[in-house]
Amino acid sequence: MPLSDVEPRLDSANSSDQFVAYLDYYRSVVDRKLDGMSDAQLRTSLLPSGWTLLELLTHLVHMERRWFVWGFLGEQVAHPWGDNADDVPESPWHVPDDVGRAELVAALHAGGERTRDVLAHHDLAERAATGGRFAPDDAVHGTPPTLLWICFHVLQEYARHVGHLDVVRELADGATGE
User: Which is one Pfam family of this protein (predicted)?
Assistant: First the structure.
């Protein structure tokens, strides 16, 4: 798994390879940004909204699984909204007291392995399966999205939340940069 602190510059026109490289990059940035923080720092919010660094990390773990495994593959997963209190969508992020950084970072990278497998074996134009996140006749969401749309969505989630992580890390101990 690449742990480069440099944005990927693949000389490839293969979009799947580009998504894999960028998602790996953002996962490694998350891991590095949390490195060296105490458990108390990881569990203390510095923001008016109240979320903590561990809550953001668990959100990223569950978000990627929600979109690629439950969403695209249509597989049933235990607690797809497990990053939310009481496993309810749109509720505040939550991390059980007995779950820590090491466990969540390992889950983040394990989820990345699963995403790499999905991207290696499916065409980006393929639509998400029904039966997981998407119902066959979903009046609200309509036709399930393509894998390409899911990749862009997950990539923007990582980019946005890594930006949040940058700010919170700077507030916590002054660390800046990648």
Answer: MST
7: confidence class by pLDDT, cuts 50, 70, 90: confident
The amino acid that residue 174 corresponds to is G
Longest Cα–Cα distance of the chain, Å, equals: 50
Q: Would 41 be classed as within a structural domain?
A: yes
> What separation in angstroms does the CA of 105 have from each of 5, 113, 129?
17, 13, 28
Domain assignment present for residue 106? The answer is yes
| CATH code where residue 124 lies | 1.20.120.450
16 located within any domain? no
Provide the number of structural domains found in the chain. Answer: 1
Nearest to 100 by CA among 55, 51, 62: 55
CA separation (Å) from 133 to 35, 59, 70? 33, 17, 6
Residue 3 has pLDDT above 60, yes or no: no
Q: Strand ranges (DSSP E) for 27-143?
A: none
Per-residue pLDDT of 26-43, as tens digits, reads 999 999 999 999 999 999
Residue 136 has pLDDT above 80, yes or no: no
